[in-house]
Amino acid sequence: MKMPRQIMRYCPTCKKQTEHKVLQVKGGGGKRNVLNLGTRRFERKREGYGSFPRKKPENCKRWGVKLTKKVDLRYQCKDCKKMTIRKRGFRIKKLEMEAAK
Predict the structure, then answer these.
(1) How far apart, in whole angstroms, are the C-alpha atoms of residue 86 and residue 98?
(2) Rounded to whole angstroms, how far apart are CA atoms 24 and 31?
(3) For 35, left (φ over 0), alpha (ψ -120 to 50), or beta?
(4) Up-side HSE of residue 31: CA atoms within 13 Å toward CB?
(5) How many domains, in total, are found in the chain?
(6) What is the mean pLDDT of residues 30-51?
(7) pLDDT value at position 94?
(8) Do the Cβ atoms of 6 and 100 come closer than 8 Å?
(9) Distance CA 78, CA 48 (A)
(10) Which of 11, 51, 55, 57: CA 20 to 30 A from 67?
(11) Do 7 and 24 contact (CB within 8 A), yes or no?
């Protein structure tokens, strides 16, 4: 997906439409807590029963491993230098930043 480096957008601090610089922030997903109930339940399942271990593959399309990462975009106002964040990250394979025309 192609995205312009600068975009006209509403700034809540200036309370008007201003030019914003588009920045891509690394991450966007967040870390998963090791002690989550689901994680503990899954680990317990993986241990298996007696001498029969659970044979679920780790990295396989069939088991829901995602092929894309979430992209987190932030917009910086040129006038007041405040950053605004997009509500949610969106999944995309590749993000290209275009120069302003």
Answers:
(1) 19
(2) 18
(3) alpha
(4) 3
(5) 1
(6) 69
(7) 87
(8) yes
(9) 57
(10) 55
(11) no
The whole-angstrom separation of Cα 72 and Cα 95 is: 11
Strands 2-4 and 96-98: parallel
pLDDT digits (tens, 9 = 90+) for 45-86: 766 665 555 555 555 666 666 778 888 899 999 999 999 987
Place of tokens 């914003």: 20
Domain, as residue range, for 61: 2-98
**CATH at 48:** 3.10.450.80
Cα gap 84→15, rounded to integer Å: 13
Q: Give the model's pLDDT for residue 78.
A: 95
28 to 10, 12, 42: CA distances (angstroms): 22, 22, 24
